[in-house]
Amino acid sequence: MKHLLIIIAFFAVFTVKGQEEETYDFSQEIKNYDISDLWTIKEINYEFEGDTTIIERAEPLGYIGDNYQRFYIHFISAIQNPTNRIEYFIYGKTRVKTNICPFQGMIKIKEAKAYVNSYTDTKQGFVTGEYEFFEDSDFKGTGTLSGTFITNFYIDNSGKIRYDALEFIADGFENNQFEGIWTSYKSKDSKKCNWGDFRIPDSSELDCGAGEFGVVDEYQANGWESYLSAFGIKVGDLTVEKARELENEKWWLDRKK
């Protein structure tokens, strides 16, 4: 899984499709780019046999706690710090069950690596770093989110940095892998809380999917009913139509306490 690249990034080579691609430090160059779109982009494109396809980027998949309760998170805005270009101010909302809460905080890039894909001659890379988000304490059941992340990018022919979905159709595709903990303001207790695009880091006990994300039977009732039912995997009483309606709901828009 790509979240393991947080460790691999400290080595001099990067494995792509079974070959070794030499990586080089991109930490200075990354300051010349604004990568906020990599976390807020609404559509992604990928190429297959010379054709470019544009699709809607799915909302991140996430879990919280040892019971793998479904965790929702949406970045509403990401703004690069004009005085420190490796920092990004983040505003968004989280959701667990029906509890929705706004948060704000920061992503900080610690390292960036790049390499040239020998198959496509495309410059690709990844950034790793840390995040800390603070949920609004005026809401119930709130706390802080902190941990590490890895985000993959590529640079197009015009020199623009883009969300890396070049291998979107490959089994196990993932991006924007966030791995850390949620800590309650009230009790100070912490729970594992991870999320990502299309797959979730450190989720082998939850994710039984091969080509794409799946949920083991034991945890399906912990908020995953609509996700599974939307794909025709019957869980509970939800119809496919209702499940898809729930999955497409923009729950982060203008909600009161």
TrEMBL record:
Entry superkingdom: Bacteria
Protein name (Swiss-Prot/TrEMBL): Uncharacterized protein
Lineage of producing organism: Bacteria, Pseudomonadati, Bacteroidota, Bacteroidia, Marinilabiliales
